[in-house]
Amino acid sequence: MTEEYDVLIIGGGATGAGTARDCARRGLRTALVEKGDFAEGATGRNHGLLHSGARYAVTDQESAGECIRENMILRRMASHCIDELDGLFVTLEEDDLQYQQLFIEACRSAGIRADAMDPEEALRLEPSLNPGIKGAVRVPDGYIDPFRLTTANVMDARNHGAVFHTYTEVVGLIRESDRIRGAVVRDRRSGEKREIRARVTVNAAGIWGQGIAALAGISLTMFPAKGTLLVFGHRVNNMVINRCRKPSNADILVPGDSISIIGTTSDRVPYDSLDKVAPTASEVDLLIREGSRLVPSLAETRILRAYCGVRPLVADDSDPTGRSISRGIVCFDHGQRDGLDGLVTITGGKLMTYRLMAQKATDVVCSKLGIEAPCTTAEVPLPGSGSKEGLKAGRMSHRAAMARLGTLAGRIPEEGEMLCECEHISEGEVDYAIRELGAGTLSELRRRSRIGMGTCQGEYCALRAALRLKAAGKSDDFVKKDIMDFLDERWKGVRPVAWGEALREAQFSSWLYEGVYGLGRDGSEKEDAQ
Amino acid sequence: MRYDTIILGGGLSALVCGISLQEKGVKCLIVSSGQSALHFFSGSFELISTDGSQREAMENLPDGHPYRKIGLDRVMELSKSVPEFFTRAGYALSGEYDRNHVENTILGSQKQVWLTVGSEGFPPVRGKLPISPLGVKMQMDLRKRFEILGGDYLMGDRAVRGEFRDGRLASIFTENHGSSPFIADKFVMATGSFFSRGLVSTPSGICEPVLHLDVDYCSDREEWYGKGFFDNQPYMRFGAVCSDRLEAVREGKVLPNVYVAGSLIGGADPIKEGCGAGVAIISALYVARQILEESL
Question: Largest Cα–Cα distance in chain B?
Answer without folding.
Answer: 55
